């Protein structure tokens, strides 16, 4: 394999990685906690796009529990988004981890 072909392959892979990153903004993952009382939705890039609260979780006398549930749901949604991105990038790289990409 000559260097010219290697460079072309690297450029092709880089272009496809950029396309996958763009596609991830259109895919979503959800995480629910507290028996479904709090649900966070993130896009494939890890950006939180929505939070849904069940009416019964809104207790003015226990704001701390609601705060904890929101943090847990957001953290889990973000983790799922990272896994989704890692899975998609892994398909391109054959499982090789590329720093800064996943």
CATH topology of the domain at 27-91: Ybab, Chain: A
Tally of DSSP β-strands = 3
Distance between the termini: 28 Å
Structural class: alpha+beta
Largest sheet: 3 strands, antiparallel
> What does the overall shape look like?
rod-shaped
CATH superfamily of the domain at 27-91: Nucleoid-associated protein YbaB-like domain
Strand order, main sheet: write it out. 1-2-3
Integer average pLDDT: 88
CATH architecture of the domain at 27-91: 2-Layer Sandwich
Question: What's the multimeric state?
Answer: single chain
N-to-C order of helices and strands: HEEEH
Radius of gyration: 19 Å
* CATH class descriptor name of the domain at 27-91: Alpha Beta
Summarize the structure.
Helices cover 52% and strands 18% of the residues.
For the structure shown, list the relevant keywords.
102 residues, 3 strands, alpha+beta, Ybab, Chain: A, 52% helix
């Amino acid at each position: 394999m000559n260097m010219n072909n290697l460079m072309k392959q690297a450029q092709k892979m880089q272009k496809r990685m950029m396309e996958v990153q763009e596609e991830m903004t259109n895919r979503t993952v959800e995480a629910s906690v507290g028996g479904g009382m709090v649900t966070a939705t993130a896009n494939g890039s890890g950006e939180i796009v929505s939070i849904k609260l069940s009416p019964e979780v809104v207790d003015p006398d226990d704001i701390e529990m609601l705060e904890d549930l929101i943090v847990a749901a957001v953290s889990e949604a973000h983790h799922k988004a990272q896994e989704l991105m890692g899975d998609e990038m892994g398909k391109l790289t054959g499982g090789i981890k590329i720093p800064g990409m996943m």
